[in-house]
Design goal:
The complex is a heterodimer of chains A (249) and B (381). Chain A has 249 residues and is α/β, with parallel strands linked by helices. In chain A, the strands form two sheets. A six-stranded mixed beta sheet of chain A has the order 6-7-8-3-9-10, sandwiched between helices. In chain A, strands 2-1-4-5 form a four-stranded antiparallel beta sheet, with helices on one face. In chain A, helix 7 packs parallel to helix 8. The longest helix of chain A has 18 residues. In chain B, 54% of the residues lie in helices and 15% in strands. Chain B has a ten-stranded mixed beta sheet with strand order 3-6-7-5-8-4-2-9-1-10. The chains are: A alpha/beta (249), B alpha+beta (381). Chains A and B meet through helix 4 and helix 5 of A and helix 1, helix 12, helix 13 and helix 16 of B. The complex binds adenosine-5'-triphosphate and magnesium ion. The site of magnesium ion has 3 residues of chain A, from helix 3.
Chain lengths: 249, 381
């Protein structure tokens, strides 16, 4: 990772010239073609995803909606490189992630994807600071450089003063903000979130969505959020509906 | 935060479990090395050439049956014999109580030849030879009872109908067991009503090669007499004492293997519990970009750390207890002589600990390798 992270830019509140609408001319960050995921249950094939094709541009805030079991999480997992499709292509920044080996994929995730989960998933034995630092342990950064970057990320989510706290000493909303800091500390292009506000009250949910939105607007990150909540979807720049593994229009 | 710190933090996250599992490793390894040290102490016969060239001749029926003195002349004439001394257990009470040091009647003239490794001044040997009421005592017993040259030692016979009053003329050291008391066999021979019988004959062979044929020859020479004998090397003789308690070596070794086996089970189940509890977190680490081999390294480091800490406490503690203090030897009232932890035993314990660390990380590593991120994220805490 380069020494001067885009986070600094973010932190200083300089508005990026980039935004989603101006991006449409360029190649999309995520290109999905004919993507299917089939689960075989004895004789029956369950199509979690059925020949999905979808493009997502840089700086987009895409919300994935749809009823339970429609394949939202499955799609998100494949884009983020933690699940593999049964067939089809999924290119992220030109790389077909479905073709990478296990360890290549791990490296790729570390550098290109930030994860936010519904249940926060911070490691309970680590402080907020250490949780955010975790993905950086895989980089070549010195501990000084790591510290700088972790602090920037925590400041961005407004929790620099809580960096010494353990997850159990934080509220749910704060935990989720720490998780966001962890997701963006490696400065990835793509941030994926599976129902990030599902366990939060509306105020905290608002804060979290605000931060995610500003990441798109200010730093031209591509954010994909799975949500059930139409209010959450309103933060997005585009919403895609899934229905039984297929895109619904 | 360093990777090492992260591993440590995880390892001690459940303090009680970490404590208990380290303790169980420590206690088991302590038991393991204690058994090995004990086994070595009991079965390790003296390994110097002196003892290898010594043959013990006893009554074939039992040690309690004595041998006639006329056998000496027969054995003495056999080729390959350097010296022969009677060696008769007296087993008297000293200062009114039973004592642990052996008291043996011997032939002072040949004692030095048979037990060449014992160190004593020439003058003291001479005094022992000259005075039939003299005795010599190993340095350990002298220290224990505060005996010095010139003291008189009264032994009250229990097995023999005779009380002895012996003058201490020599203190020896450097033998395998510096506790015994030796006195002149004439004391027994000249006892009223004595038939001149002896407990055992100790024969020193001229060379190591002469030992085996000599054993055969002695056994054959008396096989058809009223006092058939059993001759064997000193080593075999010492070991036969131990075999009186059954095959103790087998017993100890099987206890050791049960200890090790249980230990492996305990560690493996502790580790797989510790990892299973953390499946979801390991899935998150995977999602964040940690690869399988890094997760393996975490698991291995943790279980290795567990085993190593246990080993450090258990083996280190045993080593300190056995080698730096005299607690065990004293507690056994000097029945045990050295009870010493050798580098070899320490090495064996460390190998066991290392195997423990590796074996108990295999199961968890395999399940973590098989786990997909999505699957892992779905497991509940
Ligand atoms: N391991 C599996 N084996 C079989 N079927 C599976 C498996 N995982 C998911 N599915 C099926 O795939 C479909 C899509 O699942 P997915 O988790 O993507 O739904 P979702 O849209 O995220 O639902 P929710 O809103 O409830 O989270 C479902 O019908 C589910 O039953
Ligand atoms: Mg879902």
């Amino acid at each position: 990772m380069e020494s001067d992270p885009i986070l600094n830019l973010l932190h200083s509140n300089v508005t990026s010239p980039l935004n989603a609408s101006e991006e449409t001319g360029e190649a999309p960050v995520v290109q999905i073609q004919e993507l299917s995921k089939v689960y075989q249950q004895g004789e029956i094939s369950i199509y979690a995803l059925n020949r999905i094709s979808l493009n997502i541009a840089q700086g987009e805030f895409l919300t994935l909606m749809g009823p339970s079991g429609s394949g939202k999480s499955t799609l998100l997992h494949i884009i983020a490189g933690i699940d593999r499709p049964s067939s089809g292509q999924c290119r992220v920044q030109g790389i077909d992630v479905t073709k990478l080996s296990e360890s290549e994929l791990a490296d790729w995730r570390n550098q290109n994807v930030g994860f936010v989960f519904q249940t926060f998933n911070l490691l309970p034995v680590l402080t907020a600071f250490e949780n955010v630092e975790l993905p950086l342990l895989l980089t070549r950064l010195t501990s000084k450089q790591r510290k700088k970057q972790v602090l920037t990320a925590l400041e961005l989510v407004g929790l620099a003063d809580r960096m010494g706290h353990l997850p159990r000493q934080l509220s749910g909303g704060q935990e989720q903000r720490v998780a966001i800091a962890r997701a963006l500390v490696t400065d990835p292009q793509l941030i994926v979130a599976d129902e990030p506000t599902g366990n939060l009250d509306s105020n905290s949910a608002h804060e979290v969505l605000d931060i995610l939105q500003s990441l798109c607007k200010v730093a031209a990150k591509t954010v994909i959020v799975v949500t059930h909540d139409p209010k959450a979807a309103a933060f997005g720049s585009r919403s895609v509906h899934l229905e039984k593994g297929e895109l619904a229009n | 935060m360093s990777i090492g710190g992260f591993i440590l933090r995880n390892a001690i996250r459940n303090k009680r479990r970490a404590f208990l599992s380290v303790l169980s490793v420590a206690v088991s390894l302590f038991l393991f090395v204690t058994l090995l040290v004990g086994l070595r102490e009991l079965t390790q016969p003296p390994h110097d050439t002196g003892s290898a060239a010594r043959i013990v001749v006893r009554n074939k029926i039992s040690l309690g049956n004595l041998l006639p003195s006329r056998q000496k002349a027969t054995i003495e004439k056999m080729p390959g014999v350097e010296a022969i001394t009677p060696f008769t257990w007296f087993g008297g009470k000293f200062r009114g109580e039973e004592v642990l040091f052996g008291q043996f009647a011997v032939d002072p003239k040949v004692l030095l030849k048979v037990f060449a490794e014992a160190r004593m001044t020439f003058e003291q040997f001479e005094a022992f030879e000259k005075d039939p009421t003299a005795c010599i005592v190993g340095i350990k017993t002298c220290e224990k009872y505060g005996l010095k040259i010139g003291d008189f030692i009264k032994l009250q016979g229990t097995f023999w109908p005779l009380d002895l009053n012996l003058k201490l003329v020599g203190i020896y050291k450097g033998s395998i067991d510096d506790r015994n008391l030796f006195f002149n066999h004439r004391q027994l021979d000249e006892m009223p009503g004595s038939t001149g019988e002896v407990g055992t004959w100790w024969v020193k062979a001229k060379t190591l090669d002469a030992v085996a044929p000599l054993v055969q020859e002695i056994n054959a020479a008396f096989s058809n007499t009223t006092a058939a004998v059993r001759a064997e090397t000193e080593q075999a003789f010492q070991l036969s004492f131990i075999s009186m308690w059954g095959n103790i070596k087998m017993l100890v070794l099987s206890i050791c293997s049960v200890v090790v086996f249980t230990l492996v089970l305990v560690c493996a189940s502790t580790m797989s519990m510790a990892i299973r509890e953390r499946f979801r977190e390991l899935a998150i680490l995977k999602a964040l970009g940690f690869r399988r081999r890094e997760l393996f390294a975490f698991i291995l480091a943790e279980s290795f750390g567990l085993a190593a800490t246990g080993a450090l406490i258990g083996v280190g503690g045993a080593s300190f207890l056995f080698n730096q203090t005299e607690i065990v030897v004293n507690a056994s009232q000097n029945f045990l002589i050295a009870f010493e932890m050798t580098p070899r035993i320490m090495g064996q314990a460390c190998v066991v600990a290392a195997i423990l660390g590796i074996v108990s990380s295999i199961g968890p590593s395999l399940s973590v390798a098989r786990m997909s991120v999505v699957q892992g994220l779905k497991t509940l805490d």
